[in-house]
Design a protein that fits this description.
Keywords: Iron, Metal-binding, Oxidoreductase. This is Fe2OG dioxygenase domain-containing protein. InterPro entries: IPNS-like_FE2OG_OXY, IPNS-like_sf, Oxoglu/Fe-dep_dioxygenase_dom, Plant_2OG-oxidoreductases. The protein is mainly β. It has one domain: Jelly Rolls (Sandwich), CATH 2.60.120.330. It contains two helices and eleven strands. The strands form three sheets. Strands 1, 2, 4, 7 and 9 form a five-stranded antiparallel β-sheet that branches. The protein has a four-stranded antiparallel β-sheet with strand order 3-8-5-6, with no helix packed on it. The protein has a two-stranded antiparallel sheet with strand order 10-11. The chain starts with a strand and ends with a helix. Bound molecules: 2-oxoglutaric acid and fe (ii) ion.
């Protein structure tokens, strides 16, 4: 079945944005992350060519769906994880609520054989999820 984890992130207004980042660039370790962000709109995702940060425009009531490490591994690179970061706002606090959808820690993570084409090589070796996971 898998597990889920929810965070509630509070970013206070920042007096010195030039030397600060709210959430450093990273990819989530989840299968997918459902992310609710407020209307401050400081979230960026890295474009697929890796050379441009794209602003994620906040849409009232919308959830952003991010692909994480596990789905990239399980899909044998059909789906790619998304790198993201949160920039600093001088004047406003920010709140975001990510829901991380994960596999169980005792499951073995690797490319699903059911989706592999004939002759397709697995990009990843199977690994026990708890050996991969460092988020807790
Ligand atoms: O605050 C955000 O919008 C993103 C938070 C995030 O990337 C995370 O908690 O993994
Ligand atoms: Fe994240």
């Amino acid at each position: 079945m898998g597990t889920m984890k929810i965070n509630i992130n509070y970013y206070p207004p920042c007096p010195n944005p030039n030397i600060t980042i709210r959430a450093h660039r990273h990819c989530d370790e989840s299968c997918i992350t459902l992310l609710f962000q407020d209307d401050t709109g400081d979230l960026y995702v890295l474009g697929t060519k890796g050379d441009n940060w794209i602003h994620v425009n906040p849409i009232k009531g919308a959830l952003e769906v991010n692909i994480g490490d596990l789905l990239q591994i399980m899909s044998n690179d059909r789906y790619k994880r998304i790198e993201h970061c949160v920039a600093v706002d001088l004047s406003r606090a920010r709140i975001s609520v990510p829901l991380f959808v994960n596999a169980n820690l005792d499951s073995v993570i690797g490319p699903f054989s059911q989706i592999m084409k004939d002759g397709e090589k697995p990009v990843y070796k199977p690994v026990l999820h708890s050996d991969y996971w460092d988020y807790f």
